[in-house]
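The records we work with from here on pair a chain with its fold. The integers have meaning only within a learned vocabulary of local backbone shapes. A complete example follows; check for yourself that the lines match position by position.

:::
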Amino acid sequence: MVNIIVELSKYLMIVLLTMYTYLCFSIFGYSDPDRQRSMLRRQNVLMFMIHINAFMVMYLEKEDIKILAFYVIQVILFITTITLYTNIYPKSSRLVVNNMCMLLCIGMIILARLNYEKAVKQYVIAAGAIAVSMAVPVIIRKFKKLSEWRNLYAVAGIASLAIVVVVGRVSYGAKLGFTVAGISIQPSELVKIIFVFFVASSFKMSLEFKNIVITTALAAFHVLILVVSKDLGAALIIFVVYLAMLYVATHQFLYVAAGLGAGSVASVGAYYLFNHVRTRVEAWRDPFAVYDNGGYQVAQSLFAIGTGGWFGMGLFQGMPEKIPVADEDFIFSAISEEMGLIFALCIILICVSCYVMFLNIAMQLHNMFYKMVALGLGTCYIFQAFLNIGGVTKFIPSTGVTLPLVSYGGSSLLSTLVMFAIIQGLYIVREDEEEDIERRKKERLRAKRGPEAGVGRPRKTRDVSEREKRSRPPRPEKEQGKARKEQRVR
């Protein structure tokens, strides 16, 4: 009986997530607010149906009451998050909130399947990060001088990365972070946000060639420190984000071409300088040829994806634990094996939907600084997702980055939730700008229509005519009677 429920549940979850993904894009075709709210509520219902279905299957498989307790506290967290954003920030984007909760939900499901203890830790980090991020939209909306802190952003970013070089611990061949009071901290995750603010404030200050050279030099220094730390995934993200922001700000393809050329040379240099880079490239070229020398992880990932097929094996029916670091870098492979490629493709489309919203906000903002921040954060988010999924599917060499909001990792989860909160703040700023523009239009229209509507001179003319009437001598009774008859006829 349990096997039948598990088998049916995987098809049900695929259908539910497909419907959710369809709503992510179809909502852009409607301008009616009531229609949009109805579609967003349906998304919430679909998410909770996927959630309860997955945890019901896990409880039937494990028969552990802790699974049900974990499910309940997750429901409380998701309901609280949606309610707080809806009530505290009524101008925020509900689609971004829904997608954020959906990706968190999928991450909690697969982490609970792979490692219950890590799933609980992820929940605690998510709850704390959401509580912290709730204050971010207020900061974005109220602090008007964020664009003036260029030097502070540059110093904070470089100093944070330099600390890792000095005291960081080596993990998988790279210095990624350090531990304080038992808590692992990976500064590069938060530096990505600080870096975006630095570039946006610098370009808002000036787009002269001299300032572009200075900004490029400081950006290159960020990348160089990450390369020294052998955190090449974060270095690649910062490099691509900078090129995207530089092109949008200047519209000069020559700058991008020069950057791509320098990046290509640096990639070749990294291949010859770092052993773990060569190992990953060899594993990407043919993981089965170097199965015992670096290719095992990629090979197991491909086995998992191929075994799952389009519809997956079902929860607890596959062997995702055979994939090294399945709960972090290779979580997409675990999802593909047990929930199917259709489910995994829907996750990709949800990430794309978030990116579309980020670009939509960036295009509609009028302030140069806010526009560049939205563009930079959106590029950072979608490129990280591309690096993770591309690496596990052997589309590109593995870079060791996480899948945002889905993979296990405290620093990554905190930085992504803060990133989404900043986007919400920018969305509110955009709404404020639109309201301000509409108000100014109405004021200009009212001022233009004023004289025609009897304001100003016409009123003075009426006042004069009334005084003239009162100053005229009374007419004879015959004339007064005649005037009354004419008035009645009219």
